[in-house]
Amino acid sequence: MAERVGSRAMTFGAGGARSRRIERDEAADASRFFARIAYAVLGLGAPVGVVIHPLALFVIFPIGVALILMSAILEGPAGLIDRVLRAFRIPAFVALIAGLGWAMLSVLWTPYPVSAAQHALKLALLIAATLLAVAAPRDNARATDLYLFPIGVVFGMATMAAMGLAHILTGAVNEATLGSGAVALAVLLFPALGGLTARGRNGYARLLLILALVFAYIDGYAPLTVALFAGYLALSFAISDMRRTARELAWGAAAVVLLSPLIPAIAPTVSAWIFHAKLASLPPPYAPLSVAADIFTHHKLRLITGHGFETVSRGVRAAILPPQTPTALAFTVWYELGVIGALVAATGLWFAFRDIGNAPARLAPYMAAGLTAVVALAFLNVDFNDMTAMTLIAVAVIATDVAARSQYRTTRPSAAILANL
């Protein structure tokens, strides 16, 4: 009798363990399913959505992040808080938070406190969502998840070509969406290339790079061409010597940010010497330089603290600033946040480029190239104020995280190394 009871208990125990194992397997399958959908939404939807409608990206991104978090919850979010807090030990991420804090503080003296506070809140939510998206997953990424981002870049180029052809046929040109699509290509290309290389798909990576360069030449959008060329140069140097390239890019990027006001300061003198004319009378991009020179020299003391967050975009709309005021991020950082903001930005870039050398060997050159392309866009007349470019950078960070987690038998780098971006 006792033997029968004992065997029945053992049977029930084995059945309970089997039931728990089945539940775990079902939860893991559901987690992988939601992760696949999330990366499809971000990888395929982001480069296509910005071309189709200007607001599509702001619907796609939160849905993708929410699905990533749902996948992590089903998997079991053990250690999530530790992975999130680990990012605050990264100097570049601390510099990013410090820059956001200074922008929030500048609300006290900006002429547009309400819109500045709203913009700062949007940036804070974007940073928090991106950090959660790279910190929540625990397991290695599947190759099929990784390939969604290169496919999305190809789909984005195809959508831009179709939209451009439609504009030619109908005569209704929407430069804003095509410009956003070009920024998406410049920001997302190198993370996609890094993902292909991380999985050993070097042939596909070269094919995608050549296709993007040809597309940029045909498209004729100058910021896209310059950003891709800058990223390609950084990539070629990084592949040969990653450590040295990271060090030189760190110093170069920091110096360019700090010395950028010298460009409009000496531009009028150079124009008089070379063109024998005033900057304001020359075609773009010389006319915005003239406006920048006048603005910088008008209130020299305000260069220390800046005029306050959101001053440039709102000032142009209110006709307080001239219509040809530059919208480049490098200019707005100096004008709105002053020397302090520029120092924080230069410090963050220095740490970001320097620490990229610690990333996985296959992926590090493409991270350097991607960050170089973003820095190049910051010095061009690309509007970072409408959050489109910033959200695309967040998608690029998530794509890079997926590429890093796709390399098996390596230390998981999420929220520790990739937070540098």
What features would you describe in this structure?
The chain is mainly α and 421 residues long. The protein has one domain. The chain is built from 18 helices and no strands. The chain is globular, with a radius of gyration of 24 Å. The C terminus is likely disordered.
From the alpha carbons, calculate the radius of gyration and give it in angstroms.
24 Å
Structural class: mainly alpha
Strand content: under 5%
The residue ranges in which pLDDT falls below 50 over 5 or more consecutive positions are 8-12, 410-421
Mean pLDDT: 83
DSSP helical segment count:
18
The outline comes out as globular
| Strands, total number | 0
Termini, distance in Å?
67 Å
SSE pattern, N- to C-terminal? HHHHHHHHHHHHHHHHHH
Domain count: 1
- Report the biggest beta sheet as strand number plus sense, adding barrel if it closes: none
Helix content: over 70%
In short:
The protein has helices at residues 2-52, 57-75, 80-86, 91-105, 113-135, 143-146, 148-170, 175-198, 202-219, 222-240, 242-259, 262-274, 286-298, 302-305, 311-317, 329-356, 364-378, 388-405. It is mostly helical. It has one domain (17-262, 324-420).
Write the layout of secondary structure elements.
Elements: H1 2-52, H2 57-75, H3 80-86, H4 91-105, H5 113-135, H6 143-146, H7 148-170, H8 175-198, H9 202-219, H10 222-240, H11 242-259, H12 262-274, H13 286-298, H14 302-305, H15 311-317, H16 329-356, H17 364-378, H18 388-405
Helix pairs in contact: 1-2, 1-7, 1-8, 1-18, 2-5, 4-16, 5-18, 7-8, 7-9, 8-9, 8-10, 8-17, 8-18, 9-10, 10-11, 10-17, 11-16, 11-17, 12-13, 16-17
